[in-house]
Amino acid sequence: xxxxxxxxxxxxxxxxxxxxxxxxxxxxxxxxxxxxxxxxxxxxxxxxxxxxxxxxxxxxxxxxxxxxxxxxxxxxxxxxxxxxxxxxxxxxxxxxxxxxxxxxxxxxxxxxxxxxxxxxxxxxxxxxxxxxxxxxxxxxxxxxxxxxxxxxxxxxxxxxxxxxxxxxxxxxxxxxxxxxxxxxxxxxxxxxxxxxxxxxxxxxxxxxxxxxxxx
Length: 215
What we know:
The protein is α/β, with parallel strands linked by helices. It has one domain (about 10-210): Vaccinia Virus protein VP39 (Rossmann fold), CATH 3.40.50.150. Helix content is about 35%, strand content about 25%. It has helices at about 20-25, 30-40, 55-65, 75-90, 125-140, 155-160, 165, 170-175, 180-185, and strands at about 45-50, 70-75, 95-100, 110-115, 140-150, 190-200, 200-210. A seven-stranded mixed sheet has the order 3-2-1-4-5-7-6. Helix 5 (about 125-140) crosses helix 9. The chain starts with 17 loop residues before the first helix and ends in a 5-residue tail after the last strand.
């Protein structure tokens, strides 16, 4: 199994450009604010931003629910340094942990919500399954997992702009629409597609699933 970490934009030297690409090229503000609003956040929850990157979404979560415990997890020490600096500037208290999505350093049933934005397409199919199994393990019963990531294009224009991302081996599962299938294989049921967003790199899909008491 390949466990090599893939940095933001696939190259370490591109990491400083990551925030600008998301802001201006992918309408980051639109889909991340949607995610924060639509994930049923409440006070006093434990919330994990899985693959938090430079912490933009993590900070938005904490600002919306300051009484909740918010954790950001990422495998890249460089982006975590950027995230810590951004959180300090925003004056929010966030836990920043280093770790991989498919081997998380948390106890079972630790979180009420897990959010993941633009990290799943970086994982191989095997590591996607492992990551989803890990999310199932760390979610409390009734907890929710929300993903925004590339999905199967819904029309020809999106299919054309998706060709760049689709050339990445790890993203092929996304472009084939296999994320719901892999979630089911990991043990989740009733995967829901909430909304789609168009971007210059392809179509983003918000998937939602809940850990039911019977799991």
